Amino acid sequence: INAEYMGGESRKAIQNAPFLEGFKKKGIEVIFMTDAIDEYVVSKFKEFDEKKLIPVTKEGIELPKNEEDQKKWDEVKKQNEELLKIIKDILGDKVEKVVCSDRLVKSPCCLVTGEFGWSANMERIMKAQALRDNSMSTFMVSKKTLEINPEHPIVSELKKKAEQDKNDKTLKDLVCLLFDTALLSSGFSLEDPSSFAQRIHRMVKLGLSIDVDDEQEEKEDLPPLEEEDNKGEEGEGQSNMESID
To answer: Of all helices (H) and strands (E), which one includes residue 22?
Structure first.
């Protein structure tokens, strides 16, 4: 018998987390831990009252199924193998692996951590410590696994798009956008907020039927080179000196 738990900043944050969707659907109880010390203490012992303590934010969790449901699930995973490879190729080192998940119901994806590393909540707590050990942080920050919901309409459409052209730029944009939103919904902080904002702006433009001119955007984004400005100022200074002479 297991006792599932999840740590978070507040009850509301935990309650709305994507990790719990499958547990709610199956009626499985999960312990909420909202104090900063809770998850740290629980991580030090693995059992309580002869029940194994399982964090729901870690990888490798599968909800209980009967034999027929298990066969269907195995078939679904097999059908999505190619999509998982494509998503992994797009994200590269950002994730250790991409897998199908049965814990998701409403969300298209979520990010989970390895068994021995910090969870997103623990990472947030440790980064907030004034006297933290940076070498320890590097060691304990766990590699992330992207879990996708193969039954979600967004994932189904991504699968169709990948089958048509796996090198499509829109496909790459959408995968990166999904990864960034999964970071936020899973309790992590964005690694590159400006890129995330640019992708959102592109999606807004597409929604408003505004042409996206990549070359024009790149030109607008590039600030003038300081060296050239300095050279221009130096040249003007020299010419002024010559005229004085």
So the answer is: helix 21-26
